[in-house]
Amino acid sequence: MPPEDRRDPARSPSTGPDSAILSGPGSAILSGPDSPILSVQDLHVTFRRPRRPDAYALRGVDLTIGRGEIAGLVGESGSGKSVLASCVLGLLPEHPAPVVTGRVLVKGVDMLTSPETRRRAVRRLDLGSVFQDPMSSLDPTMRVGRQVVEAAGSAEEAVRLLTAAGIPDAESRMRVYPHELSGGLRQRVMIAMAVAGNPALIVADEPTTALDVTVQAQILRLLRRLRDDFGCSVLLITHDLGVASQVCDRLVVLYGGRLAETGPTTPMLSEPRHPYTASLLRSRISLTSDVARPLPTMPGEPPRPTRPLPGCAFAPRCDLRTDDCEKAPPEPRPVPGEPGRLSACLRLDELAERPAEPGSASWPPNAVSGRGPLLTLRNVHQRFRVRGQGRHVRLSALSGVDLTVEAGESVAIVGESGSGKSTLLRAVAGLTPVSSGAIELGGDARPQIVFQDAGASLTPWLSVATLLGERLSRLRLSKAETRRHIARTLTLVGLGDDVLHAKPGALSGGQRQRVAMARAIIDPPELLLCDEPTSALDASRAAGVLNQIGELRRELGMTVLFVTHDLGAARVVADRIAVMYLGRVVEIGPADAVVGSPAHPYTQALVSAIPEPGRAIAAPAGEAPDPLRPPSGCRFRTRCPAARAECASRAPAPVRLDAGHLVDCLLYEERTTAGSAAS
Amino acid sequence: MTAILTSTRASGRLAGGLSRLNGGLVAVAVITLLAVLGPLVAPHTATEAAGVPFTPPGASALFGTDDVGHDVFSRVLYGLRLSWLSALAVVGVGMLIGLVAGVLAGLGPRWLDELLMRITDGFLAMPGALVAIAVVAAIGPSLEHTLIGVSVVWWPYYARIVRGEVRAIRSRPHVEAARLSGIGRLRVATHHVLPGTWSSLVVAASLDLGYVVLTLAGLSFLGLGAPPPAPELGAMATQGLSSILTAWWIPVFPGIGVAVLTFAANLSGDRLQAQSGRI
Questions:
Q1: Contact A448 B195 (CB under 8 A)
Q2: B170 touches chain A (CB under 8 A)
Q3: A451–B173: do the CB atoms touch at under 8 Å?
Q4: Is B159:B149 a contact under the CB 8 Å cutoff?
Q5: First-to-last C-alpha distance (Å) of chain B
Q6: Is the peptide bond before A96 cis (omega within 30 degrees of 0)?
Q7: Please, are residues A485 and A474 in contact by the beta-carbon 8 Å criterion?
Q8: Model-level pTM?
Q9: What are phi and psi of A362, to 5 degrees?
Q10: In what order do the strands lie in the sheet with A584-590?
Q11: Is A501 at the interface with chain B, CB within 8 A?
Q12: Which of chain B's residues have a Cβ under 8 Å away from the Cβ of A448?
C-alpha cells in the first residue's frame, strides 16, 4: 500500500493550502488539519453466498472526509457505493456473510471491529443518515413528532430542527403521520432527524433520487445550508454527477468497487482525468446535449461484482486501454500539478491533451410526414374515485387536456409526480377509459407501450423467443419466417441470437430493456408510447435507450409519445414538448423553444431546477398542492413567483407565442391582447 | 414474486442437481414407484388366500396373514397403491377444477367472481369430511363415489388459492404489457397469468396429499370407501382392529402404511414451501 499521506490530503501537512479548495464556504472554521471525520482505509468487502459466486463489492477503497466537507460518492449501480455507506454506518448486512478487511474510522472509532455498543454510540452521537426512501425509514404507525423527539430529545428541539429543515408550520406537522406528508416533506423530516444532536457526519444515500426535480433542488440547497449552519460533514451518495456538482466540495468516483478518480468538484468535472469520469460526463443527458446526432454512449456493460477482472475494471469499455491495463489494477496516483486529485488510470497524463472526439453522424432529417394527425385528444378529463380521509372523493387526474400528435412526430410529455402524465399515457393506450372527452387514434393504430420497469413488463416464465413470437401470431407467418423476423428485430435493438431462449430473469437490466423494446416494435406500431423508459437506468444506459428510440422511430416511421419527468431526456427524443402541471398542459411547443426559452413560470422553474455541472440551480418555493384540492384559477399560482390576484379567479386559456408554441398563463394573455389593441 | 419461482426453481433444480433432493421427495418418489409397481413386487394378490389365517409375521409371510389368510404385506402394498393413487386423483381433480374456477373468478367478470367465491365459501363453511360422507351416503359406497365425494369438498381450497394468485398477478405490469401487445385474452390467461399460480398450487397440493390420504382412510374406516375385501388401508385397519389383541399385525401394518404416506407427503410439501419461500 502506498504511504497514507499521499492519499489523504486532509492529513498531509503539505496540502494545507488545498483544503481551502477542497471545502466550500463555511468550512474555514472547520478544517482541522489532523482529524478527518471519516477515514476509510483499503476497504475490501466480499459477499459469500451459498451456491452462488462470491460478489466482490469493494476491492480496496481509500477515502477521507474532513470537517465540514461535503464529499460526493459517485458511481453507477453495482459500483459498491451503497456497501461503502453501510460500512460507514457499521450496518453491513449479516446475510449474505460479508468478508471485510481494511478500516473504517468515524472520529477514530473503527466501525467494523468495535463492539456493537461502541458503534451504536457513534451512530447516535456522531452520525446521521438519510436514505432514498423516507417512507421505509420512518415508522408509519408513529406520529412524526414522536419520531423526531426520539432523536432530538425534546419537543422544542424537534420543532427547531423541523423548522431548520425547511418544514413550514413545524409545530402542527408534529402531529401528523408520515403517510400524510408529501415525499419532499418526509425527506425533510428524515434530514431533521439526521442532524439532531449535531452529528459530525451525515451519510445521505441517494436522498433526492425519488423526488421531483423542483423538490430535489430544494433538498440539495438544504443540505448545503445545513453544512454551513451546523458544520457537519456530508457523504452524499449519488449516481448523478449533476446532483453531486451542485453541493459537493469534492467528488469520489467509484467503478467496479475501486476508486476511479477523486478531487475537487469543479476541476474534476471540467477536466476529468479518468476515462470513466470522462465518459460518464459525456454520456450524461443534459439540457445542452447535441440532439442533432445520437448521444455519445459508453460501450459495453458495467462490471459484474461476481466476475472481477484482474486489471482495471474499466478496461473493457475504455478506448485508451493498453495491455498493461489488463494485467494489474492501477493504483490511484496524484494528478501532476493538481493537488488533491488522484486518478487510477495508467494514462492519465495523455487524457488531458486528448482532442475532442468527432461526433457520430447526425440523424437523418426527420420524417414528420404531413400525413395529418395520428392522435388527437380533445378536452380529455379523467376522474378517479379515491378514498380520502375516510370517504370517497373525486380525484381529477386530467382536467381538460387537448393535444394533437402528427403522424411521424415525437412528442414528449413532461411533468412531475401527480401531473397526470402517466394517466394520459394509459388513457391513450386504452388501459383506462377516460371520464369525458375524446381520444382519436388515426387509422388502425394500435399503440405499443414501453414501460418504466422493462424487466417487470416481461413475463418471467416465458422465453424471449415466445415473448416476441406471440406478437407475430396475427400475421400468420410460417415458423421459419417467424424465426427470421425475431432475429431481425433482435439485431435492430442490438441483441444477438444468444438471448433467444433466455428467460427475462437471466438477462441483465440493459438486455431486458432491449427485449421490451423489441417486443414493442417487432410488429411495428404506428404509435409507440414510452412511460419513463430511462428513469430507472444509469446515465450510460439511458443515453443508449434514447438513441435507440430515435433510431427506431426514424427507421420504422413510428410516431412516439414519450412521458418523462426529465426535460433533458424529453429534449433529446422529442420534436415537441408538452409540460403538464396538475392535470393540465401548461405549455407546449417545439422542444428547443420550451427548454431554451421557457414561457410558463412553471417550465422556467423546471428548467432552472435541473442540476447541471457548472450551473447553479434555483428552486421554486413549495411543492405541488394536493391534487384532490387543486387551487382555483391558475393551478400553479400557489408556487408562482409572478402570481397576482387575478390568477386565483380566472383559469388562463392557451396563448400563442410563436408558431406552435402555446402557453397557459395570464401574463402572456395580457401581452397579446395589448399587442392586438395597439395594431 | 411467485412469478419468478417457477422458472428459477426449474433452472435451480437443474443446476443444483441432486443436492436439492431430500428425504421427503425421495420418499414420495419411492412410494409412487411402489404404487405403480406394487403388483409386481407383491408375493400374492390382495384377495387370494396365501396361507393359514392369523399367521404372525415371519419368513413365510413378511407381515403375517389376516383372518381369512390374505398376505398382509401384499395387501399393504396394494393398499398403498390404492390410497396413493386415489389421493393423487383427488388432488389432481381438485387442482383441475380449482384452476378453472380460480382463473374464471380471477379474470372473469365481477358477477362470476362473486358467484364462484360464494360457492366456495359455502363449501369451506362446512366440515369437509361431513360433506364427503353426505355425498357418499347419497350415492352409495364405492371407491369411485368416495373419490367423487372427496373431490367435491376439495376443489374450493384450490380455487381460492388460484384466484388469489391470479388477482395478484393480474395487476402486475407484465400482464398489462401482454394485453397491450395485442395477443388474445385466452393466451394472456393461459400463458401470462396461469403459470404464475403454479408454484403456490403445487405447494398447497403436496401439503394436502397427506390430508387426503387420511380422509380417504377415515371414510373407509367408517365403511364408506371401497367395500371389502378391497385392500384399502383404512378399511383394513378397522376390520383388523377387533383382533388387535390376538393378531396385532393385521391392523398395525396398514396403519403404519397410512402414517408413512402422510408423513412423506407432508415432508415434501414442507420442502417445496420452504424453497418457494426462500426465493
A1: no
A2: no
A3: yes
A4: no
A5: 8
A6: yes
A7: no
A8: 0.78
A9: -75, 160
A10: A448-450, A527-531, A559-564, A410-414, A576-581, A584-590, A661-664, A654-658
A11: no
A12: 180-181
- A461 → closest Cβ in B6, B177, B182: B6
Angle at B259 between CA B258 and CA B262, to 5 degrees: 85
Task: Please answer whether residues A311 and A317 qualify as being in contact, where contact means their C-beta atoms are separated by less than 8 angstroms.
Answer: no
The reply to whether A373-447+525-678 shares the fold of A4-126+199-273 is yes
- In sequence order, the 6+-apart residues with CB closer than 8 A to the CB of A432 are A382, A423, A426
Interface check for A179 against chain B (CB to CB < 8 A): the answer is no
The amino acid sitting at A221 is R
C-alpha to C-alpha distance for A17 and A10, rounded to whole angstroms: 10
Mutate to test the interface with B, among A470, A474, A503, A507 (most CBs of B within 10 A): A470
Q: What residue ranges define each of the domains in chain B, with the CATH number in brackets?
A: 72-278 (1.10.3720.10)
pLDDT in tens, A582-633: 999 999 999 999 999 999 999 999 999 999 888 888 888 777 887 888 898 8
CA distance A302 to chain B (A): 24
Domain A4-126+199-273, CATH class in plain words: alpha beta
Which CATH code for domain A373-447+525-678? 3.40.50.300
Q: What integer best gives the mean pLDDT of chain A?
A: 85
Domain boundaries, chain A: 4-126+199-273, 138-198, 373-447+525-678, 455-524
Other Cβ atoms closer than 10 A to B141: 17
pLDDT at res. A670? 67
Cell of B185: 385474452
Determine the residue among B174, B179, B185 to mutate to test chain A binding: the one whose Cβ has the most chain A Cβ atoms within 10 Å.
B174
Contact assignment for B180 to A460 by CB distance below 8 Å: no
- Cβ separation A449–B177 shorter than 8 A: yes
What average pLDDT does the segment A263-267 reach?
93
Length of chain B: 279
Cell, residue B87: 389421493
- Percentages (nearest 5) of helix, strand, coil residues in chain B: 75, 0, 25
Query: How many other CB atoms sit within 10 Å of the CB of residue A392?
Result: 9
3-state secondary structure of A458: coil
pLDDT bucket at A430, cuts 50 / 70 / 90: confident
For residue B84, give the amino acid letter.
W
pLDDT digits (tens, 9 = 90+) for B136-176: 888 887 888 888 888 888 889 899 999 999 999 988 889 98
Chain B CB within 8 Å of residue A528 CB? no
Report residue B13 as a C-alpha cell. Answer: 433444480
Contact at CB, A505 and B4, closer than 8 angstroms: yes
Give the model's pLDDT for residue B12. Answer: 42
Give pLDDT tens digits for B100-142.
999 999 888 889 999 999 999 988 888 878 888 888 888 887 8
Q: Check whether A18 has a pLDDT greater than 90.
A: no
Distance from CA of B4 to the nearest CA of A (A): 6
DSSP designation for A46: E
For residues A471 and A523, what is the distance between their CA atoms, to the nearest angstrom? 7
User: pLDDT tens-digit profile of A192-238?
Assistant: 999 888 899 999 999 988 888 888 998 899 888 888 888 889 999 99
Cα distance from A154 to chain B (closest Cα, Å)? 43
- For residues B275 and B59, which has the higher predicted lDDT (pLDDT)? B59
